Amino acid sequence: MPSLPFTQVDAFADAPFTGNPAAVMPLDAWLDDATLQAIAAENNLSETAFTVATQDDAEADYELRWFTPAVEVKLCGHATLASGHVLMGERDAVRFRTRHAGVLTVMRDGDGYTLSLPAWSMAEKAMPELAAGLGGPVQASWWRDGGYALFLYPDEAAIRALTPDFAALKAHGDLLLMASAPGADSDIVSRVFVPGGGIDEDPVTGSAHCLLTPYWAERLGRTVISAVQASARGARLGCTLAGDRVILTGACRTVIEGRFFL
Prior knowledge:
By secondary structure, the protein is α+β, with helices and mostly antiparallel strands. The protein has helices at about 35-45, 75-85, 130-135, 155-160, 165-170, 210-220; strands at about 5-10, 20-25, 45-55, 60-65, 70-75, 95, 105-110, 110-120, 125, 140-145, 150, 175-180, 190-195, 200, 225-230, 235-240, 245-250, 250-260. The protein is about 20% helix and about 40% strand. It has an 18-stranded mixed sheet that branches.
């Protein structure tokens, strides 16, 4: 019976059972998309990352793709960090070529890692139906083509009090919905919801900070920001805006190693 290596990693986690779990599954060659999606559905984690070593690619060590239990996504930060953790070995950095987000790099940083992601801009846009589905006192909203929406709230208490209508939000399709505000003991706080992609609330979302970091860096007037994602598992992230890149810092913890049988 054929089998694949399987590692489950808590990413952006200072201890097991915190941060965001991801499965990392290195492959010798790409399987068909239906099989990749079926494996991710079986894993039933917010993301399963699949990698294949590159050949004659001076810019990247691996190709990387990510799947939720329902869909393939264009960018996933925490599963990229987890993939770097699994594949780093004795190196100081691992570079991943992706289909939609270019080359992403994970580097050692003390006991943790830094993750380089693209910095993305948004445009202000009213989205009353989505705002109603999230609930709470939305102050303003911003949009990026590709399915990213940011909703601003007055404070951390409002973020933590949100009880979204996931059925209503799911009807709008595969959107990544961010709720954010100034933090109580951090610069910013957020929660992230992706019901149309099979994840009602994502525990920790690196890709969301591709948008949150540039927005808050401009609003706060500085490029280094402390962030809390206020999910049930939760995490603290260091965020730096470096030109057209966002640099996130975080640690990883391996919690499961084994084989996945096909």
